[in-house]
Specification:
Shape: globular
Largest sheet: 2 strands, antiparallel
Strand order of the largest sheet: 1-2
Radius of gyration: 21 Å
Order of helices and strands: HHHHHHEHHHHEHHHH
Number of helices: 14
């Protein structure tokens, strides 16, 4: 019989595919170029949140640098194009590899730390990278912004590119979670000491989780650079990381579908409340506090709870064992 954790993973995977199927049909209803762009940015954040969730939700290691790795990925492909006129099919892999390499180095150093020390180290790294990029005007153009060539002339083409990449990332994470690697990562999250005592190379897998998380964030940033066609160090701001963390918490940390639900809800909500100024940040902050306090599994947990209450009770097979 399939164990509960595998059943939950299968259910979450199916739910995430259903959500993405709805997203695939959205352009039939959304005809505004502006809102189509908003949905593309939702998928950009969903990729970042999915990457961060691999590290925090499944491995239990809190990083405050997902936006910094997205920035590295964006500048990786942007600088290749700006200085070397490299095509996107070279620039995007360079951005992903650059983010993964920085993730490996930072992971090897920082993941021997625990709790707030790990968080502060990753936050310091993020701010250092943002300041270095911002001050390297001759190389990165700093706050003036770096022009990146677009891939398409149609936003609809970008839309389905981001959607295809998001589906591929979800499928990849799903199969990793069903493998022995996924069991190692979740064992580290649940009880690192017990995992180490049973022979799991904890530091190695924590570093590998950091590399995978960084690469996914770098992929998101590289795609976003070609979509926005103008990037600046602002994409690495701590505020952007705050968005990613709130999306994961609100949607449901440690779930496959949570990052997608959270990304679309938070970013669409922020756009709808944009005219309210900074008050939308207060709204989402309160929502994060309430969910973290009362609903640890986020909105996905609430959806599951509602479905259980609506489902009819299972009939018991009394007397099934009586002899004929």
């Amino acid at each position: 019989m399939i164990d509960n954790s595998e059943t939950r993973a299968n259910r979450q995977f199916i739910a995430s595919l259903l959500v993405l199927a709805v997203v695939a049909l959205a352009p039939a209803v959304v005809t505004s170029e502006y809102w189509l762009g908003v949905l593309i940015v939702c998928m950009y954040f969903a990729l970042q949140t999915a990457g961060w969730n691999v590290l925090a939700g499944y491995t239990g290691q809190i990083s405050l640098a997902p936006a910094a790795f997205a920035m590295i990925g964006a500048y990786g492909t942007g600088l290749m194009s700006y200085h070397l006129q490299a095509p996107f099919w070279i620039g995007i892999p360079v951005g992903i590899v650059a983010a993964a390499l920085f993730g490996f180095v930072l992971g090897w150093v920082a993941l021997r730390l625990y709790g707030p020390y790990l968080g502060l180290t990753t936050l310091s790294f993020a701010e250092i990278m943002r300041i270095v990029i911002g001050n390297s005007i001759d190389f990165t153009r700093g706050d003036l912004g770096l022009n990146v060539p677009g891939l398409f002339t149609s936003r609809l083409a970008y839309y389905y590119l981001f959607l295809a990449v998001l589906v591929a990332v979800q499928v990849g994470i799903f199969f990793v979670l069903k493998s022995k690697v996924g069991l190692f990562l979740q064992a580290i999250r649940d009880d690192e000491i017990a995992a180490r005592s049973r022979g799991v190379p904890v530091v190695r897998w924590k570093v590998m989780a950091f590399v995978a998380s960084s690469a996914i964030c770098g992929l998101a940033g590289a795609l976003y650079a070609h979509f926005a066609q103008l990037i600046s160090p602002e994409i690495g701001l701590v505020l952007q990381t705050g968005f990613v963390l709130s999306m994961a918490v609100i949607g449901g940390m440690g779930t496959l579908v949570g990052p997608i639900i959270g990304a679309f809800l938070v970013y669409l909500g922020s756009e709808a409340l944009r005219e309210a100024g900074g008050y939308h940040l207060i709204v989402f902050s309160i929502l994060v506090i309430l969910i973290a306090r009362f609903f640890r599994e986020g909105l996905w947990g609430l959806i599951q709870l509602a479905l259980k209450r609506l489902a009819p009770p299972r009939a018991t097979s009394a007397g099934a064992g009586t002899a004929a």
